[in-house]
Design goal:
heterodimer, A: 116 residues, mainly beta, 4-stranded antiparallel β-sheet, 12 strands, B: 115 residues, 7-stranded mixed β-sheet
Amino acid sequence: AQKVTQAQTEISVVEKEDVTLDCVYETRDTTYYLFWYKQPPSGELVFLIRRNSFDEQNEISGRYSWNFQKSTSSFNFTITASQVVDSAVYFCALSDTIQGAQKLVFGQGTRLTINP
Amino acid sequence: DAMVIQNPRYQVTQFGKPVTLSCSQTLNHNVMYWYQQKSSQAPKLLFHYYDKDFNNEADTPDNFQSRRPNTSFCFLDIRSPGLGDAAMYLCATSRDRAGGVWPQHFGDGTRLSIL
């Protein structure tokens, strides 16, 4: 069965610190997709990144970077020079096919608080 | 901007009184999803529509139903809300799996309270 584990329930850092959010997944599929979503206090889920299982290159987008390692089934997310606006709950998710659509299996989320 | 819109943002209903939440999209995606998210938990998929085909999750209570009259709109009906149904309800859309797996785009959610 598909499973996503985000072991860090809450993280609190001071602004400008770097912070890494961990994500470990389980799947028997050889082809799969991983996602990160951000949920600010307003409630909407904001898509951050999609990564397929054949692409192990790390990705950087501004202050955000992602480290995908199939050998350890991990897809970690790092925020460099954190800002107060980065405060949110972050979800890692794994895709699961359902009849032409896709089901997202979410981790439990990590609540990130950036203190001024 | 193309988007997913949920109305209302906040909904209060009485115990046992039917309630309908709505979702519309301008993305022209053929898949629409409804999630329930309780406090400090991950979103939980209730059901989805792939075009007009309705697909229910095995553990979704019978109390929850959905309608999709056209590509743009989808409704979540809760026939007899109980206190345990108080939650944030999130609507999402995506393209189908042809050509890959695409991100789901979420609305702002409707926060449902039960009195």
